[in-house]
VWFA domain-containing protein (Thalassospira profundimaris), 242 residues
Amino acid sequence: MADDDRAVSSQSSRQDVADFLNRARSVEPTAPRSGPAAGRIVFALDATASRQPNWDMAAHIQAEMFDAVSKIGTLDIQLVFFRGFGECKASKWCRNASELRDKMTNVQCRAGHTQIARVLQHVINQSRKKPDQPIDALIYVGDCVEEDADELGHLAGTLGMTGTRVFVFQDGRDHGAESVFRDMSRLGNGAFARLDGNAASVLADLLGAIASLVVGGMDALTHYEKNRKTGTIRLLTDQLKR
């Protein structure tokens, strides 16, 4: 990735929490968001060795997120990935598909263990540092879990309570991972989906649906669903309405 991409911290400091509380007190509940973006999404992916084929696929179809909302608002997306021995990085916020695609195509997957907790904590930390610029959703794409399920559930629940929806899309059929991923999405007020079979078209539909939800709410999501006419999006909307 580019030189301006930075390592993701694995924990939240006491000063981070204190700063968050101080800023939160100064923000009126109805205050408008700073900046022109109508929505902010963190797009996080497992970039360990087994994920290379699907990483390449995701790099080419992520434009669906921008295309879906091009007529109703502006979307900011940050790419986060982990790979290798403790490597976890976050890009700057992107506002167009080509910029995000360029960042993704410069990444090569490497062998290593999952660092999902680090990704979740990164999103929590960002929200604490800038409560006036909320992150509307975290989208995580991965195939397995090698971490403590209770910790992941707690972190996902923390995001859900603070207004960041957690969406988890799973490659493959690791049943143990699926159970953890479903819990994460449920506690994070989001949704879970598996990317079997026609993974490219399914992921494209899901990304566009979430972008529509973030920028335009449930009405925009319903409109997007009607235009796409796929069962995949209905599975997502049914979970959101529970």
